[in-house]
Design goal:
Strand order of the largest sheet: 2-1-3-4
Largest sheet: 4 strands, mixed
CATH topology of the largest domain: Glutathione S-transferase Yfyf (Class Pi), Chain A, domain 2
Number of helices: 9
Number of strands: 4
CATH class of the largest domain: Mainly Alpha
Bound molecules: glutathione
Order of helices and strands: EHEHEEHHHHHHH
Radius of gyration: 17 Å
Distance between the termini: 36 Å
Oligomer: single chain
């Protein structure tokens, strides 16, 4: 059986969990805090980040987008990529934007914990979050993000949006991006999303 090294608030880990659930693949969930000395993550990922999909032979598959690509290649059904080259490329672009929003939010989260947070750095990351949200709002409609089926773009964007609610509630993004807000609400109704609702973790060791 596969194992997934995961953290409860992580939007990256949530993507892998959702894809595994949607594809009906059984896995053991190993919840960790990647910042703590006791973490097993570096044993499976030289880049020391989770999520890591651990194969039965102990091989680690890491980086959330690559894990989803790996799962799509090895477990193609149900297909999470849309049909047609243009739609696939559009879904991949949505994943990139979702990643960028999450990366900037992580940077903000830790910058704000520093003794003397940098105003210009915070402003820069906030612009990225807002810019990414605006780019996604322009793409959102009343159905799935790309094509007629639920897929990778919905997973990436859905996880990023809910992560903002957890880490950055004061951003108030929902009022400014009503179509994305409605998309997030629709996605959170899915069983795979309900089973993976993000919750903050206690980080006991200093990170920055
Ligand atoms: N681009 C990576 C980002 C993963 C990531 O940043 N994971 C965080 C937890 S949410 C982590 O493990 N951080 C530890 C570190 O950066 O050293 C992915 O998509 O998997």
């Amino acid at each position: 059986m596969y194992a997934l090294i995961s953290a409860t608030p992580s939007p990256y880990a949530r993507r892998a969990r959702i894809a595994l659930i949607e594809k009906g693949i059984p896995f053991e969930l190993r919840t960790e805090v990647p910042w703590e000395g006791s973490t097993a993550t570096p044993r499976y990922n030289p880049l020391e980040k989770l999520p890591v999909l651990v194969l039965p032979d102990g091989t680690g598959i890491y980086e959330s987008r690559f894990i989803l690509e790996w799962l799509e290649a090895k477990h193609p059904e149900p297909r999470l990529l849309p049909d047609g080259v243009e739609a696939v490329l559009e879904a991949r672009q949505c994943e990139v934007i979702a990643d960028g929003i999450c990366d900037a939010t992580v940077l903000l989260f830790f910058e704000r914990q520093r003794e003397a947070p940098s105003g210009p750095w915070i402003a820069r990351q906030r612009r990225k979050v807002e810019g990414g949200l605006a780019a996604l709002e322009a793409r959102a409609g009343s159905g799935f993000l790309v094509g007629e089926r639920f897929g990778l773009a919905d997973i990436a964007v859905g996880a990023a949006l809910r992560y903002l609610d957890v880490r950055f509630a004061e951003l108030g993004w929902r009022k400014r991006h009503p179509k994305l807000s409605a998309l997030s609400d629709r996605l959170e109704e899915r069983e795979s999303f309900k089973a993976t609702v993000p919750v903050p973790q206690m980080i006991r060791e200093a990170v920055v």
